[in-house]
Amino acid sequence: MDSNIRSATIALRPLSPGDSISAGIQLYRNHIKLYLTLSAVSHLWLLVPVYGWAKYIMTAGLMSRFAFQELIDEPETVAQSRAKLNARLWSFLWLVVQLGLRWIGVYILSMIALFFITALFGLAIGVLVPVSPIFSVIGGFVILGTTLFFLYAIVRIFLRWYISDVPLSVEKGITAGQSINRSWTLSQRLVGRIQIVIILSFLVTWPLSVLTSLASRWMSQLLLDQLFLGLEGTFTAGWLIFVLGWAIGSIVLLPFWQIIKAVMYYDFRCRQEGLDLELRH
Fold first, then answer.
1. Nearest to 269 by CA among 168, 148, 185
2. For residue 146, what are the contacts with CB-CB under 8 A and spacing of at least 6?
3. Distance (Å, rounded) from C-alpha 70 to C-alpha 78?
4. Hey, CA dihedral for 16, 22, 25, 28, is it positive or negative?
5. What angle, 0 to 180 degrees and rounded to 10, lies between the N-to-C axes of helices 32-45 and 51-71?
6. Are 66 and 258 in contact (CB under 8 A)?
7. CB count, 10 Å around CB of 256?
8. What does the pLDDT look like over 133-150, one tens digit per residue?
9. Distance of CA 238 to the CA centre of its chain
10. Is the pTM of the predicted complex or chain greater than 0.85?
11. Are 163 and 186 in contact (CB under 8 A)?
């Protein structure tokens, strides 16, 4: 392990948001060729329905496992990590399905609750407005505040599941559902920290996202303005360039985000479980 990472993590201490980003960048830089290769291969798997999607999700989890093993100074080779995760291939796909169902369920229930609450406020306002028009203004602010509160609550719930794939990638004898529940448990009282780390990570990766987007648009415009292609050919080439630009950006960014998940998982376990990493590892 790099000495900078070792000094930040070997004591198994909690990390600040800045430490988390620094550790993520350092881990990525130390094995950039390996991570980019894994990411490129995983994106090719997306072209294969169902099985390929499961391989993509598993490979993303493999990146997190590889990073976590580095953090606790027990590194594995990619072959070792892959051998341990291959047996859970379909569990990774099932995890994403379960997460999707939970997200949809939370959203639907929240919207139903919001509808009934705003409807009650609307009825109350309708009764009180004839008494004093100011109740209309107050009611409007109450409804707006209630809507914002529900949206905020939904985001916080989603963030509690943000690292759901990491326990499945790291811990022994765990199912997809248990991995989701582990994310929920480990992130208790730490949602604010997740938000900060995600915002900082976005700021770090934003220049690359903008660069690939601008490059794709520039190349597409170049085709439209300077190449004498038929209308159909121009559209097809422009679309392919857009997809290529997205793929390049995604290939480069996926490892970073998976590493950041591993760093957060490491940090949360240090905070919530002390030094009890070896028991579950």
1. 185
2. 114, 117, 118, 121
3. 12
4. negative
5. 160
6. no
7. 22
8. 676 677 678 778 888 999
9. 29
10. no
11. yes
Amino acid at site 223:
L
- Give dist(CA 17, CA 21) in Å, integer: 6
Per DSSP, helices labelled H in the chain are 3-9, 17-30, 32-45, 51-71, 78-86, 89-128, 134-160, 165-170, 176-186, 191-226, 231-273, 277-280
CA 16 from chain centre, in angstroms, equals: 19
CB 195 within 8 A of CB 159: yes
Cβ contacts of 177 within 8 Å, gap of 6 or more:
98
Tokens matching residue 18: 């800045």
The answer to whether 69 and 281 have CB atoms below 8 angstroms apart is no
The one-letter amino acid at 213: S
Reported as a single tens digit per residue, the pLDDT across 31-82 is 999 999 999 999 999 999 999 999 999 999 999 999 999 998 889 999 999 9
CA distance 166 to 184: 12
Residue with tokens 């326990």: 167
- Cα separation, 212 vs 228, in Å, equals 25
Nearest to 64, CA basis, from 265, 263, 264, 262:
262
Q: How many CA atoms lie within 13 A of 98 on its CB side?
A: 16
User: What residue ranges of the chain have pLDDT lower than 50?
Assistant: 1, 3-11, 228, 231-232, 275, 277-281
CB 170 within 8 A of CB 281: yes
Per-residue pLDDT at 159: 96
